[in-house]
Amino acid sequence: DPVENAKRLAAYKAVDNHVVDGIIGIGSGSTVVYAVERLAQRVKDEGLDVICVPSSFQAKQLIVENGLRLGDLEMHPELKVAIDGADEADHQLTLIKGGGGCLTQEKILASCAEQFIVIADYRKASKSLGEQWKKGVPIEVIPSSYRPVAQKIEKLLGGKSELRMSGSSKAGPVVTDNGNFILDWRFEGAHDWKEVETTLNMIPGVVENGLFVGMAKKAYFGMSDGSVMEQS
Ligand code: DER
């Protein structure tokens, strides 16, 4: 499968290039699975001395299932590197994240890391946001506030906000690891993403948004021809 192979290539290259002994932030999603796989290999083969801090219940499971040492931000508030996926990245390495609903703890981890490294397959590399990722910007909101927040977003920024529903696995809306809801804001056109990020986070009821502006130090994109494109 070219997409899975592209994810693996990007993940392995990022772990090989950036992971040294120390505290490592582990993101969420399907690409980061390969990063944890590679990390576990290197711990086994090279005796790498790492403690892994998760960004979600899923990341925590990955760390535990791969026999890696588990840490948290309370014990380790400063990370050497954080590695995470993205739903889309533009040419300035502005990211949309949160497709997996873990954006809040992911952004916290990214903010605590000396280096925030993004790993993704070729489908995520765009010229501008919205080109390939059509599900909008995920926004974590306090459950009781989702309707007024949706209305305020549309008034301030246009587009449409939709409450993310669980679908088959559970009746009702998606509930995040932090016990909140997610609005997916389907934006239109180009925006000043730094301005949008601030506008969104100033709305009472918004916990965090999935725009990561100026945070990623480098991105590794696995390509369909087996190469890895690096962007920083
Ligand atoms: O939800 C998230 O933020 C994930 O990191 C997402 O952006 C990437 O998930 P994927 O690696 O499964 O595409």
From TrEMBL:
Record has Transmembrane helix as a keyword: no
EC number(s) recorded for this UniProt protein: 5.3.1.6
Keyword vocabulary terms for this entry: Isomerase
One Gene Ontology term, aspect cellular component: cytoplasm
GO biological process: D-ribose metabolic process; pentose-phosphate shunt, non-oxidative branch
Catalysis: reaction(s): aldehydo-D-ribose 5-phosphate = D-ribulose 5-phosphate
GO molecular function, one term: ribose-5-phosphate isomerase activity
Name of the top EC class for this enzyme: isomerase
Family: Belongs to the ribose 5-phosphate isomerase family.
Name used for this protein in its record: Ribose-5-phosphate isomerase
Segment of the intact protein contained: 163 to 394 of 395
